[in-house]
């Protein structure tokens, strides 16, 4: 990866994932040599061997009462094993142990972790997990972790996944490359469904030193290896063979046999899962005949396809659909503007978009850097988070959406000195932005309320500030300095509040009972640093807050901080 640029994001270089040296005898289970298919009716495992003949025995370690089974023709089967199902809410996992024996001698032992679950993508009824209709509530994730680059410790991914889980996220698309096995292990354990993606380009590349240079020699082996390596992960529900591929988005005929060949490899290596591709110009793609070559059609937000769901469902009635990458919205933590901004409007006044009304006739907030984007949910490419999720949840045949992105990431920053862009709803350090709480209000049931913006605006006394609340409760009441400003119900919970310093408090009700609250206090001058932390093995995440003399968080503080670590 030393030749740059080799991708549109930060690729890293060298060895940046775990590496193992596996020592075996001459007779062994082949590398990635087990394939477990597990349903409530049966667990079956196909075993491939290298180096000679041996008897194959298998057992499920957590279910000793099932005993050990002898394989026939390289396959072992457990009928009605009585295992618990795997799901995001209950990610139950089991271990299947394979032993190669010659008489009493054990020649090799190979453990495979698996889960029991069923999936179905239906063109009329959407996505089903274990027979139950479920919306994929997803995000896209690149493989870096901000300042840690591409060499991400497991504990860092664990923290990031915990933050997504608290938001109600149940699915992740790996943008736009195979994931680290350790990441997929965590998704198995913590309960995330995954679209694992193989390629960002085919023969027609996007960067000078991209994968197109290796495509002809390596595409089949790389795709097959990804599937063989990862097909035992219950978290994976879809294979993706591409993202915004030039041949596909331009509707070029030379891409059709490539798509067909990719699908054949996916089905050959794993007949239990469907495949997809993230398509950013669905109109040209479908017109060219790519739709029937995918098991599930993936919509990326570009090209206006996000407005065509209903029309495409009518024109292609047998085609399961989901948003592989939508919506694209931008937000910077702590930054607000009341005027709507569309990323592409300046270069294309006719860009297809869903109109977002301005919050005010004149801009209320001034002074923020133009490269930072508003956290009101009004800085977008085509559609807001509100309109996108409203469409997704209202269409019964639509399987779900994967927003761009969960976390901010390195790359696509459009010029030095920027190193990232603001697409994430969680920043590089893992601090949630306001949009995180919108999704939490839609994707979780535990009572919550979040109010924005913060309430420290020196010099803006008397100016009217739009105040928004996100909540999954029946109604929200807003108070300023203990004076009620009224209740709001439904999705539109907005108050226009003349700014005065003090305490802004939102109280959420279910029925007549207060079940959640959120408070912002006007902060004074920065006076101290407050440290809090969590440790996971050899990784410590330490949060440094700037607070005033009363210990209140100071949202505008931006001092240089020097940290010395000893030990």
Structure description:
The structure is a single chain. The chain is α/β, with parallel strands linked by helices and 567 residues long. 40% of the residues are buried. Strand 23 (475-480) and strand 24 (483-489) form a beta hairpin. The chain is 16% helix and 31% strand. The strands form eight sheets. It has an eight-stranded parallel barrel with strand order 11-12-13-14-15-16-17-20, surrounded by four helices. Strands 4-3-6-7 form a four-stranded antiparallel β-sheet, with no helix packed on it. A four-stranded antiparallel β-sheet has the order 24-23-26-27, with no helix packed on it. The protein has four domains: 28-114, Sandwich (Immunoglobulin-like), CATH 2.60.40; 119-443, Glycosidases (TIM Barrel); 449-521, Immunoglobulins (Immunoglobulin-like); 524-567, no CATH class. It is globular. It contains nine helices and 29 strands.
Describe this structure in a few short sentences.
By secondary structure, the protein is α/β, with parallel strands linked by helices. It has helices at residues 154-167, 181-190, 215-230, 246-249, 256-269, 282-287, 309-315, 385-394, 434-443; strands spanning 28-38, 42-50, 55-60, 69-70, 75-79, 94-102, 105-114, 119-122, 126-129, 132-133, 136-141, 171-174, 193-197, 236-243, 275-279, 297-300, 321-325, 341-342, 379-380, 398-403, 449-452, 464-471, 475-480, 483-489, 494-498, 503-510, 513-521, 528-536, 539-547. It is 16% helix and 31% strand.
């Amino acid at each position: 990866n030393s030749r740059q640029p080799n991708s549109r994001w930060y690729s890293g270089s060298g060895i940046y994932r775990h590496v193992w040296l596996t020592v075996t005898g001459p007779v062994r289970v082949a590398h990635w040599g087990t394939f477990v298919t597990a349903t409530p009716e049966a667990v079956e495992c196909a075993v491939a061997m290298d180096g000679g003949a041996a008897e194959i025995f298998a057992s499920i370690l957590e279910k000793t009462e099932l005993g050990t089974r002898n394989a026939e023709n390289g396959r072992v089967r457990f009928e009605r094993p009585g295992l618990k199902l795997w799901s995001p809410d209950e990610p139950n996992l089991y271990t299947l142990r394979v032993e190669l024996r010659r008489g009493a001698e054990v020649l090799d032992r190979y453990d495979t972790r698996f889960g029991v679950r069923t999936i179905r993508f239906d063109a009329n009824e959407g996505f089903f997990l274990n027979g139950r209709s479920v919306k994929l509530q997803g995000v896209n994730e690149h493989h870096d972790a901000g300042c840690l680059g591409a060499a991400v410790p497991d504990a860092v991914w664990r923290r990031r996944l915990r933050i997504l889980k608290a938001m109600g996220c149940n699915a992740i698309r790996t943008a736009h490359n195979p994931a680290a096995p350790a990441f997929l292990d965590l998704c198995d354990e913590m309960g995330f469904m995954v679209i694992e993606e193989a390629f960002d380009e085919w023969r027609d590349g996007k960067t000078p030193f991209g994968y197109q240079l290796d495509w002809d020699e390596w595409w089949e082996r790389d795709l097959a290896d990804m599937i063989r390596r990862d097909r035992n992960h219950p978290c994976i529900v879809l294979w993706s063979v591409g993202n915004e591929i030039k041949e596909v988005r331009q509707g070029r005929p030379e891409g059709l046999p490539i798509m067909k060949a990719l699908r054949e490899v996916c089905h050959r290596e794993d007949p239990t899962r469907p495949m997809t591709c993230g398509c950013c110009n669905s109109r040209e793609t479908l017109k060219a005949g790519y739709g029937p070559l995918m098991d599930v059609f993936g919509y990326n937000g570009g090209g206006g396809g996000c407005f065509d769901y209903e029309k495409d469902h009518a024109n292609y009635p047998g085609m399961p659909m989901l948003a592989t990458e939508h919506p694209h919205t931008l937000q910077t933590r702590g930054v607000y503007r009341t005027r709507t901004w569309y990323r592409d409007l300046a270069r294309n006044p006719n860009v297809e978009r869903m109109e977002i009304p301005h919050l005010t006739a004149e801009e209320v907030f001034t002074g923020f850097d133009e490269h930072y984007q508003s956290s009101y949910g009004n800085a977008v490419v085509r559609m807001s988070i509100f309109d996108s999720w409203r469409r997704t949840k209202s269409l019964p045949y639509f399987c779900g959406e994967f927003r761009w992105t969960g976390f901010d990431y390195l790359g696509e920053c459009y010029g030095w000195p920027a190193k990232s862009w603001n697409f994430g709803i969680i920043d590089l350090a893992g601090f949630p932005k306001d949009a995180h709480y919108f999704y939490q209000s839609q994707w979780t049931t535990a009572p919550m309320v979040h109010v924005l913006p913060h309430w420290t605006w020196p010099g803006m006394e008397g100016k009217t500030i739009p105040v928004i609340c996100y909540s999954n409760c029946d109604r929200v009441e807003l108070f300023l300095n203990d004076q009620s400003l009224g209740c709001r119900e439904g999705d539109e919970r907005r108050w226009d509040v003349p700014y005065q310093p003090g305490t802004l408090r939102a109280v959420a009700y279910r029925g007549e009972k207060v079940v959640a609250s959120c408070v912002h206090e006007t902060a004074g001058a920065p006076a101290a640093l407050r440290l809090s932390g969590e440790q996971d093995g050899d990784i410590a995440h330490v949060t440094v807050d700037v607070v005033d003399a009363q210990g209140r968080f100071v949202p505008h503080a931006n001092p240089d901080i020097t940290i010395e670590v000893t030990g």
